[in-house]
Amino acid sequence: MIAEVLTIGDELLRGEIIDSNKSFLSERLLRIDVQTHFHTSVRDDPADMTDALVRAAGRADVVLVSGGLGPTRDDRTLEVLAAAFGRELHLHEPSLRAIESFFARFGREMVESNVKQAWLPEGAEALPNPVGTAPGCLLEVRDTVFFCLPGVPRELHRMMDEQVLPRLAARSAPRSGAVVRSTLLRTFGIGESNLEQRLTDLAREEHMELGFRTAFPDNYLRPVARGATEEEASARLAALVAALRERLGALIYGEGDEESLEVVVVRALVERGLHVATAESCTGGLIASRLTSVPGASQTFLGGVVAYANQAKVSQLGVDPELLERHGAVSEPVALAMARGARERFGADLAVSTTGISGPGGGSAEKPVGLVWIGFASAEEVVAQDFVFPFDRQRHRMLTSQVALDAIRRSLMGEPRIAPRYLEARPPGRKTSESATPDGPSVAEGSP
After folding, report:
1. What pTM does this model have?
2. 410 and 328 share one domain
3. What is the pLDDT of residues 21-68, one digit of tens each?
4. Distant-in-sequence, close-in-space partners of 288: CB < 8 Å, separation ≥ 6
5. Spatial distance between the Cα atoms of 139 and 148, rounded to a whole number of angstroms
6. What CATH number corresponds to the domain at position 197?
7. Which domain holds residue 239?
8. How far is Cα 359 from Cα 373, in angstroms, rounded to an integer?
9. Is 37:61 a contact under the CB 8 Å cutoff?
């Protein structure tokens, strides 16, 4: 099946919002082996919309339309769709009652403009919207099937999974004669080109594919396997995933769309009955925020300190003022003291700390913009590593939080706490970082 994704809205063409719906819909289509051949975006203009709809009908088997189902005057998708293919609009009473119930459930008054959302093209099948007012619809036009969905991502995601994919799977399976299974493997610590080089001999068979995608600071793998039956496709996918895991080891940290690094870390800590705390300067609480975004984090996360100013490092984490005076806030001794202080003050099993220069200013020849020290403390050791991440402020903070979380994950796995070489640019002339154990300082192996 050939698919086209059509997104509608002036705000898309003006660049006011990022059109994430295209990538989401195409990724979901791939799961049932439906290839997206075309991406189109048009304004809320009837002539442009009509042209796009007619073109799509002439070249695609399935067209997913996003946007323009709201109650306002610029929401014209169903009106234009009906006119483009000679259909009348009819009031769909079940959809109207669903909209009325939605407002009643929240104790809000429904205005007349919302009735507009219940008018569907003649011959269309209504698609229920469980989290919004706008119903979607399915309309067949000759050899093309149109699925119209709201542009609000939360509504579109739910309806795509619950309403569209089951209907498309039923239509596509007889045509393809094959079952497709795929998954998403999340990697951190290796560049996209190096990832491809390591896996060059895998997934070369006709019934297998391996896709690569960068999503800073990670790189994703999309293994796809096909088979005549569900059992065959699943077995081939399992074998491919096993080969990928054997080849990459700890570089793969998670599998699936929802298995972010913070989810993996929280789950691992809970399973082991361990508690964690954070001491953050340059990341400003980002690590704590990521951990607490995971349901169940209260079982493992005890708390964190955002010690941005030196005074806060002293009063909240017990950092010796002499360390700050002698070495500066962005230094190994301070990172060590912050991690140790967070662990002791919260009574945690593990703690991480961050202190760095996220920029764009504040750097020097000795301590350039991008320099960061990341500390880790446990009952067995207190260590720190320094890196220079040559990115803008936002990505510097995000990457720092990712390395800190990955340090926790690797420690729990018994793996070396390393960050990828491609992320590190140690300032020239600087010595290998030192670490300290609870019994005193010792020289640590340098970062890779």
Report:
1. 0.78
2. yes
3. 999 999 899 878 788 999 999 999 999 999 999 999 999 999 999 999
4. 278, 280, 301, 303, 304, 306
5. 8
6. 3.30.70.2860
7. 180-255
8. 15
9. no
